[in-house]
Specification:
Layout (H helix, E strand, L loop, with lengths): L10 H12 L19 H13 L12 H17 L7 E5 L2 H19 L7 E5 L5 H9 L2 E5 L9 H7 L4 E7 L11 H11 L2 E5 L7 H6 L16 E5 L11 E5 L2 H5 L3 E3 L7 E3 L8 H38 L4 E3 L7 E6 L5 H10 L5 E3 L4 E5 L8 H39 L2 H16 L8 H9 L3 H15 L3
Parallel strand pairs: 2-3, 2-4, 4-5, 5-6
Antiparallel strand pairs: 1-7, 6-7, 8-9, 10-11, 11-13, 12-13
Length: about 475
C-alpha cells in the first residue's frame, strides 16, 4: 500500500497492518541480534514504553513549557557526569544519539578554536581509523579536515602516529572507549597527554562504553583510564540507548568546562517569531525519549546496571573461551569489554559463516579490514549464548566441508575472475548497483550475503564500491 488513503482506516486495521509488517523484521526482543538493539528484559521494556507514552505529545524544544522535562534532563546528565567522574564545573546536554553528541563535540571544538586560535583557517581533527564514522560525517558538515591515523597490532590508536599528524591547524584529538569495530579501548591517557602537550582539546567517544564500563569497574573489572579521571580529556559522549537499555533517541555529551559547552549552542535573535535558542542540534525533540531514559535509569538503579553488566561480561567470556577452542576462528585485536569481532583463518570465509548463522536466525554485522563478524554482547545475550555457540560450531564445521569442495573450482576460475573484473564496462557496475537495489526493496531481508560482500571486495577500487553504495542509497530513498 502506498499513498494517503482517501478515507481513514480503522485503528484495528492499521494496527493489524503494522503487526504484519513487523512480523517480517528480526525480533528485537529475542536477543538474536548482535548489534542495533540493546535488549535487557520485558520488565525494562514495559517501563520504557509506559514512560514514553506519558510524554508522547510533549516537545522538549522549550523547557519553560514543560519544566518536568528540564528536571529529568538535568538529572540524567547529572547521573552520567557522576558515572564518568566529571569535575564539579563540568556541564552537558542530552542529544538524540551518538552521532549528534559527536557532532556537537566537534562543533564546540571548532567554534572554541575560532575564538582562541583565530589564526587557524582550516581546522583539523585527528582520529584513529577505528573511530566511528560519525566523526567523518560531522567533519563533512562542519567544514573540518579529519585525519585518520593507523592502529597498533592490538587494535588501539597508534599514539606516535597521532603525534606525527599534528600540525598548526590541529584543534582536537579523538579516542574511543571502546571503539565499535573491535571493542578495543584506545590509550586515552596517552592521547590526552598529547593533547595537553600541544594545547589541544581531547574528545573521548564513550558512546558504546559510557553506560557499561563504569558498572563493570564497580564489579571489580579493571580497564585502562578512559574518562574525566584523565586530566587532559575535555569532552565525552555516552549513549543511554546502548548499554543504558533506554529507547532510541537518548545520548549525553559532556564537557569538562561549562565554557566549552557554550560553543555548541545556537542562538538567533532577529527572527520575527521570537528569539530562537537551541542547546543541541535538534530543534523539536522527543519528550518520550527523555522520559523513558529517566524512567529506565531509575528502575534499574546502580544494582540493576551492575547485574546487567555482569551478565553481558559472562556471555562475552563464554564466547571468548569457545573461540579459543575453534582453531578456524580468532578474535580481532585485543578487546577490553563486551564487544568482539570474529574472523576466520583461510581458507574459511567469515562472511559465509555469517550467512550460515543468519539462516539459523542470528543477525551479525559484517565488517572489513579485516573481514569479520561483529558482536555487541548485552545482558540479554547471556540467556542465549549457549545456543549461539552450538550453532556457530555447527556452521564452522559445515563451512569447512564446503570449503574443501569449492577449492578446485576457485583455483580453476581465479585467473578468469581477475581478468573479467579488470575489463568490466561501467554499465555492468551500474547493473550490480541495480541488483543490490532490487534486493533491498524485497519484502524479506536477504539471508545470504557472502557473495555480495565478496563481489564488493573484488571491485578494482574503493571508489567503485563507494559509488555503488551511493547509487543504492539514492535509489532506495526515492519518494
Amino acid at each position: 500500500m502506498s499513498g494517503l488513503p482517501s478515507v481513514g482506516r480503522s485503528a484495528e486495521d492499521v494496527l493489524r497492518d503494522l503487526e504484519q509488517r513487523k512480523a517480517r523484521d528480526t525480533d528485537s526482543t529475542a536477543s538474536r541480534l548482535w548489534s542495533l538493539v540493546y535488549y535487557h528484559s520485558p520488565q525494562v521494556l514495559e517501563v520504557a514504553q509506559r514512560a514514553y507514552a506519558l510524554y508522547i505529545s510533549e516537545n522538549a524544544l522549550n523547557p519553560l513549557a514543560f519544566p518536568s522535562l528540564r528536571q529529568m534532563e538535568n538529572e540524567i546528565v547529572g547521573i552520567v557526569k557522576a558515572l564518568l567522574h566529571a569535575p564539579p564545573q563540568a556541564a552537558g546536554t542530552m542529544t538524540t544519539g551518538g552521532t549528534e553528541s559527536i557532532f556537537l563535540a566537534l562543533k564546540a571544538a571548532r567554534d572554541y578554536a575560532f575564538f582562541h586560535k583565530p589564526h587557524i583557517a582550516h581546522p583539523e581533527v585527528i582520529a584513529p581509523l577505528s573511530a566511528h564514522p560519525a566523526f567523518d560525517k560531522a567533519a563533512h558538515y562542519l567544514g573540518l579536515k579529519l585525519i585518520h591515523t593507523p592502529l597498533d597490532p592490538s587494535g588501539k590508536a597508534d599514539v606516535r602516529a597521532m603525534e606525527a599528524a599534528i600540525s598548526e591547524s590541529t584543534i582536537l584529538l579523538v579516542g574511543s572507549a571502546p571503539a565499535y569495530p573491535h571493542g578495543v579501548i584506545d590509550p586515552i591517557s596517552e592521547i590526552a597527554d598529547l593533547a595537553q602537550k600541544y594545547g589541544l582539546l581531547c574528545h573521548v567517544d564513550a558512546c558504546v562504553g559510557g553506560l557499561i564500563l563504569p558498572f563493570l569497574e564497580k564489579s571489580g573489572i579493571a580497564f585502562p583510564p578512559y574518562d574525566f579521571r584523565v586530566e587532559g580529556v575535555t569532552s565525552i559522549s555516552a549513549d543511554l540507548h546502548k548499554y543504558g537499555y533506554t529507547p532510541k533517541g537518548a545520548s549525553v555529551v559532556l564537557y569538562r568546562q561549562r565554557e566549552l559547552r557554550r560553543h555548541q549552542f545556537f542562538i538567533y535573535g532577529s527572527w520575527p517569531g521570537g528569539i530562537y535558542a537551541s542547546a543541541s542540534f535538534s530543534g523539536t525533540r522527543s519528550a518520550g525519549a527523555i522520559a523513558a531514559a529517566w524512567a529506565v535509569l531509575q528502575f534499574l538503579g546502580e544494582s540493576g546496571y551492575i547485574e546487567a553488566a555482569k551478565a553481558a561480561w559472562q556471555a562475552t567470556q563464554a564466547i571468548r573461551t569457545a573461540i579459543k577452542e575453534i582453531p578456524e576462528l580468532y578474535i580481532v585485536g585485543e578487546p577490553n569489554a563486551t564487544i568482539l569481532a570474529l574472523a576466520a583463518h583461510p581458507p574459511l570465509d567469515i562472511y559465509r559463516i555469517g550467512d550460515g548463522l543468519a539462516q539459523r536466525g542470528w543477525f551479525l554485522d559484517r565488517q572489513q579490514h579485516p573481514a569479520s563478524l561483529h558482536l555487541t554482547v548485552t545482558a540479554g545475550h547471556n540467556r542465549v549464548v549457549k545456543r549461539f555457540l552450538e550453532d556457530l560450531r555447527a556452521v564452522v564445521s559445515e563451512e569447512k566441508h564446503r570449503s574443501t569442495q569449492r577449492k578446485w573450482r576457485r583455483q580453476a576460475g581465479k585467473a578468469l575472475l581477475r581478468t573479467g573484473l579488470a575489463i568490466l564496462p561501467e554499465r555492468w557496475v551500474r547493473n550490480m548497483a541495480r541488483l543490490i537495489t532490487r534486493t533491498a526493496q524485497a519484502q524479506e531481508p536477504p539471508r545470504r550475503t557472502a557473495a555480495l560482500y565478496g563481489m564488493m571486495a573484488a571491485l578494482p577500487t574503493q571508489g567503485s564500491l563507494e559509488k555503488i553504495v551511493e547509487d543504492f542509497l539514492d535509489k532506495a530513498l526515492e519518494n
